Amino acid sequence: MDLVVYAVPLFIAAMLVELAWGLRTGRNTYRVNDAVGSLFLGTLSQARRFVTLGVGGLVYHWVSESLAIARLDAGHWGTWVFAFVLYDFCYYWLHRLGHERTILWAAHVAHHQSEDYNLSTALRQTSTGFLLGWIFYLPLFFAGVPAEVVVTVGSLNLIYQFWVHTQHVGKLGWYEWIFVTPSNHRVHHAQNDRYVDRNYGGVFILWDRLFGTFQEELDNEPCIYGIRGPIHSFNPVKALTHIYVDMARDSWRAKRWQDKLRVWVARTGWRPADVEAADPRPKPDLAGFERYDPAVAAGVPAYALGQLVAVVALLGYMQWTTLGYGQGVALWAVMIGTTVTTAFWLQAMAPHRAVAWDALRLLLAAPVLAWAGAGSLPFLAAAAAYLAANALALPWLWRRTPAPVPTAALERPEAS
């Protein structure tokens, strides 16, 4: 049983408590733009199943039926303990190679792009991990663990990881030696040289201690969150694809065929020498690090939060309603369009351009929502109200959003 869907209300409640606690103590770790960007990626990750047709399930079934060395009893507690530990061991290696190999980092990078660290970061998930991630869990099926046990312990593993994404919990004594905690997971999300590529465990930190990838959080070196090649964007499509795009470009530009192929399997950070020389990508100096935080009009954060509520509500409708494949793809496209155009506002795009893109989104979304919701009067009423509210909000935002000042004007000296 996938327990994650049932944990969503707890996730929301925990984020609200963390926000309230941060505001009360003067240590707020939330920004609307970053949190909305993270939660957009989380909803798209959940909606991905309406679009993709992965091969992992078919391979798992074949392995279970043909190659399993045993058939473990789902009714025995020992099966559950064994599966829980083995799942986390497999997760450790997926997670570790997800940082050490570019093709896997391309899928995982979205989780690390947030330059804040809070519970919303935990929900910042990829939509492309299904491509290769399933390979790492094959040992569970070779060992004969029933599929329903794998799904359940996998969801428990993911749920456990939620609470460690906070800055409000300090070190926890002996617990730090065995389990993943907020302290040692903060290290994992940091881009400091001392911290990068450490602490990969999901539930157990023992794997990192055994395999030499553990790093303690140090009082004299605060964590700086984010990635060393920041994307400076809240656009979920860019967040999910930028490493794939970089690999494709490097492969295309490389002169040697060996390098063209090696790009796709190389260790993270490797680039063909000729490509690096022609197009270097220097890493920014963390000494002057500043979080990406464009100034926007006063109404934009509220508009973005409203779009987040709408996207989550649409995801809920999709999950609890029987949809055809085409309807699922169409509603997923509406979600993509909504998250992308909202990102334009959060990135302080010129208001006339942001309004144009958003208006186009509404025009395209209206017939899709009418088609996908046919037969459901409550859904159609909610969709009509949503579209009308958006149509009223756009001119309001346009009037309140100043046009960006051209760079040349900023650099022009004043007349004496």
Walk me through what this model shows.
The protein has 416 residues and is mainly α. 58% of the residues lie in helices and 0% in strands. Helix 14 (300-320) runs antiparallel to helix 17 (377-400) and helix 15 (325-346) packs antiparallel against helix 16. The radius of gyration is 23 Å and the shape is globular. The termini are far apart.
User: Strand share of the residues?
Assistant: under 5%
- Based on CA atoms alone, the radius of gyration comes out at 23 Å
Coarse shape: globular
Q: What's the count of strands?
A: 0
* Subunit organisation of the chains: single chain
User: What is the succession of H and E elements?
Assistant: HHHHHHHHHHHHHHHHHH
Helix content: 55-70%
Largest sheet: none
Spans with pLDDT under 50 lasting ≥5 residues? Answer: 409-416
Spatial gap, N to C terminus:
73 Å
Structural class per helix/strand content?
Answer: mainly alpha
Q: How many distinct helices? A: 18
pLDDT averaged residue by residue: 93
Tags for this entry?
single chain, 416 residues, mainly alpha, 18 helices, globular
Topology readout:
Blueprint: H1 4-25, H2 32-47, H3 56-66, H4 77-100, H5 102-108, H6 119-122, H7 138-142, H8 147-162, H9 182-189, H10 206-211, H11 236-253, H12 257-262, H13 273-278, H14 300-320, H15 325-346, H16 351-372, H17 377-400, H18 407-411
